Amino acid sequence: MNRVDGKIALVTGGARGIGGETARRLAQGGASVAITDLLETEGKALAGEIVESGGNAIFLTHDVTREDAWQQVVAETEQRLGQLDILVNNAGVWSRGVIEETSVEDFDRICAVNLKGVFLGTKHAIGTMKNRPPDADSASIINLSSTAGLVGSATSAVYSMTKGGVRLFTKSTAIEVRARGYNIRCNSVHPGATESPMQDDILATSNMSPDEIIAFKATRNLLGRYGEPIDIAKAIMFLASNDSAFMTGSEVVVDGGYTAR
Ligand SMILES: NC(=O)c1ccc[n+]([C@@H]2O[C@H](COP(=O)([O-])OP(=O)(O)OC[C@H]3O[C@@H](n4cnc5c(N)ncnc54)[C@H](O)[C@@H]3O)[C@@H](O)[C@H]2O)c1
Questions:
Q1: Could you tell me which of 189, 190, 167, 162 has the C-alpha nearest to residue 259?
Q2: Which pick of 5, 20, 142, 166 has the fewest CB atoms within 10 Å?
Q3: Helices (runs of H) and strands (runs of E) counted in the chain
């Protein structure tokens, strides 16, 4: 189940956190993985770890907000690994701030990564995935949204705005590519609070004491713990694999029941 043998995958923001675990999992499932990120040291180390354990991975330095960088990473991935089958638009940034105090510079920075980055990745992936024969396994684009793309928040409205945008961009992509006859699926994943460097930053700026953080994590959702990157990576693997062949335009919520109440 959930095998991706022989497939070529590109994971943005893949040096650490959810993207890093997704890269590991895809490689364990048989894919060759291009890990892309701004973080060179972490990204190269992870690619090395995957290769040492018998998988196939490369690291490419990449800023998802730049179109020329997208052209380069897609071309280099295809030159070194083969034609792209799976794109995970995972790179994202978070920022705490009430609307009245959010600067235009901060707004532009968050939108550039979370929205423009997903748009550019999708654009350049479609450009190469569209020639796939109709009887082959579909190419798969997976976009990281969030529970913040489903329900609102008192502390990060701009982040929610971007993640809500990713949710509907995903559905529109799914419709558009089928209308154009392309053999491509596109789905979004909506993690709840998940242990990662981003989440460490969220909690560090929360003004909660260490004891309050422990109590907060235990009551945040129905399952009484924060997600682990592997919890999210498993859902991404499912959408990347042919086991999800009948899913496109879907939103997969992995949140311990946070949005159930
Ligand atoms: N951790 C959570 O609780 C949580 C919850 C919901 C959604 N998400 C989403 O999941 C995704 C991964 O989050 P994470 O928690 O692993 O975060 P993280 O901060 O640990 O990892 C994000 C990665 O994206 C990279 N990145 C940032 N800007 C980039 C850019 N311009 N170009 C290329 N790479 C860039 C970072 O260097 C980092 O390696 C994000 O889209 C995030 O919004 C996370």
A1: 190
A2: 5
A3: 9, 7
What CATH number does the domain located at 8-194+228-256 have? 3.40.50.720
Q: What is the pLDDT of residue 138?
A: 98
Listed by start position, the domains of the chain span 8-194+228-256
Residue nearest to atom 17 of ligand 1 (CA): 198
Q: What is the residue type of 256? A: G
CA 24, chain centre distance (Å)? 14
Predicted TM-score (pTM) of the model is 0.98
Ligand 1 neighbours, Cβ below 6 Å, are 12-13, 15-19, 37-39, 62-65, 90-94, 113, 144, 146, 191, 193-194, 196-199
Residue 202 CA to ligand 1 centre (angstroms): 12
Q: Does the pLDDT of residue 40 top 80, yes or no?
A: yes
Query: What amino acid occupies position 143?
Result: N
Ligand 1: residue of 66, 196, 217, 253 to mutate (most ligand atoms within 8 A of CB) is 196
> How would DSSP label each residue in 37-93?
ES-HHHHHHHHHHHHHTT-EEEEEE--TT-HHHHHHHHHHHHHHT-S--EEEE----
pLDDT of residue 70: 98
Choose among 142, 140, 143, 144: nearest CA to 183. 140
Helix, strand, or coil (residue 220)? coil
